[in-house]
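User: Predict the structure for this protein chain, please.
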Amino acid sequence: MPTIQEPKLISGNANLPLANAIARRMSLHRGVNVGLVDARVERFNDGEIFVEVFENVRGEDMFIIQPTSNPANDNLMELLIMCDALRRSSAARITAVIPYFGYARQDRRSKARTPISSKLVANMLVGAGIERVLTMDLHAAQIQGFFDIPVDNLYASPVFALDLKTQFAGSMDDVMIVSPDVGGVARARDLAKRINAPLSIVDKRREKAGEVAEMTVIGDVTGKTCVIVDDICDTAGTLCKAAEVLMENGAKEVHSYITHGVLSGPAVDRVTKSVMKSLVITDSIQPTEAVKAAPNIRIVPTAPVFAQAILNIWHGTSVSSLFEAETLSPIYDGMYAAE
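Assistant: Here is the predicted structure, written as structure tokens:
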């Protein structure tokens, strides 16, 4: 088999700006031009997906950059078909870089006669020939166990910690990290520990599915700059309600740091009209024009950390080193100063 010379990137249509940004960052890291493999991912008139790779990938270490965001089914099929095209073209190894892993919320049977769709998706990815998965902030960490291949789950919290220290420089003593529910306490605690801030919890109780009947704040948020931390913001109803409850309990102001900005339906309008001073999301999902135009929504780039993770995988070095701020600081050096 030919010697693998360099990692090769290929992207579907789900988030081309992020894929190009990752290629640019890798070019900076390596000092050579790294571009996306020339390919076309198109649809027939009936919606069938067709993939054609125009470059030789025999014996290459391939990385497919494709979040499975809205439209989730189309983007998932693009990923599977691209993988099949590369496998049949004798690629040496295929890694799926999935910044946002769709179907992750269906990680267990919540009631009788329901599927575990994230396990089904894991089976499909492995069956298509993917040999490794690189993702960020899985909704449930145990999804890694659904795969019989290596899964590297990056965390947004080290990046958020860098951003918080820049945005609230001089007033970090007033910052309090808030988990919007009991299930997200571990994620919120991790960020609180990174910036040495106290932790609070919003406990919500539901009378029936989809309706939050009551919210209670656990912890004293009086006079605090509250930062709500979560992995996914979909319709933003619960998030905006939590911000209101925190303000009613004496918070000075409320900000939110959410990894994946799904922001479907009325979400952007709700966030714009809410009491939140800002909502910070990553670019794991390509932002819509409405998201870009929202005055209180800000986007933090993930290309630097994904680019370094891809290089680490290619070199066979530690990916978990990227969980530490000491490693990320040089990667993001100067990025926040420009904002």
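The radius of gyration is 20 Å.
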